[in-house]
Amino acid sequence: MSAPPPPFRTTAAPAAGAIARPAATAAVMAAPAIFRCERQRATLTTTSCARMWRAAQERAAPPQPWESLAHCHGCPIGARHAGRPDLILFAPATALRLICPRCTRQATRLIRGRLCISCYNRDLEARKGRNAKGSRLRLCAVLHAAELAVIEGNGAVRHVRQAPVVSLAEAMLMIARAAKAPVAFGRAVADAAAV
Ligand SMILES: [Zn+2]
Questions:
Q1: pLDDT at 33 exceeding the cut of 70
Q2: Ligand 1 center–CA 110 separation, angstroms
Q3: How far is CA 66 from CA 55, 63, 85, 89, 109, in A?
Q4: Ligand 1 centroid, distance to 99 Cα (angstroms)
Q5: Residue 173 CA, ligand 1 centroid: distance in Å
Q6: Taking a C-beta distance cutoff of 8 angstroms, is the pair 166, 141 a contact?
């Protein structure tokens, strides 16, 4: 004996497990969501939050502490609202943002996001081979490529090569500043996956 035919429906029924939405839901979702931003101490729409977050990230230099946009720089909520969860920063890494990885001093800004002004100028001279007085810099003999095994987040091991650096510590700081999760370092060995 065959099963009876399914009942005739005039409108599409939601699939099993699906949540039926009222027709007005689309209009409700179109309205900008509002939330309380504790960093700005203000009530914002998600749209304005995303716009401010983008403005803070796109600055050539990070906003100064006294600027309103400084609160948006590196904000994970802003990154989500802007559709860039991949750019959510890891707080301990953010704390290293203005530490020069070469001299380990706190800087007001890092040139090209890499070195403090002093180290950057010495690095430029080293690449030319001589300083303004024509003397060969000791730094020329110190710069080298460093190779490390890097373990981050899911435990996978990456083989990373950083160059030029003055020490393994500089290479580690550069990697730690960009980390998205807790990171550990080891000596690069042949069986580590090459990057
Ligand atoms: Zn420096």
A1: yes
A2: 8
A3: 16, 8, 26, 21, 15
A4: 8
A5: 12
A6: no
Q: Which two tokens stand for residue 24?
A: 């007005």
Task: Return the biggest CA–CA distance within the chain.
Answer: 101
Confidence of residue 82 (pLDDT cuts 50, 70, 90): very high
pLDDT digits (tens, 9 = 90+) for 135-174: 777 888 889 999 999 998 778 899 999 989 999 999 999 9
Q: Give the distance (Å) from ligand 1 centre to CA of residue 152.
A: 26
Residue 26 to residues 13, 29, 184, Cα–Cα distance (Å): 18, 5, 46
Q: Give the pTM.
A: 0.58
Q: How far is 156 from 158, CA to CA, in rounded Å? A: 7
Question: 164 and 145 in contact (C-beta within 8 Å)?
Answer: yes
Which residue do the tokens 């230099």 mark?
61
Which pair of structure tokens corresponds to residue 151? 């373990």
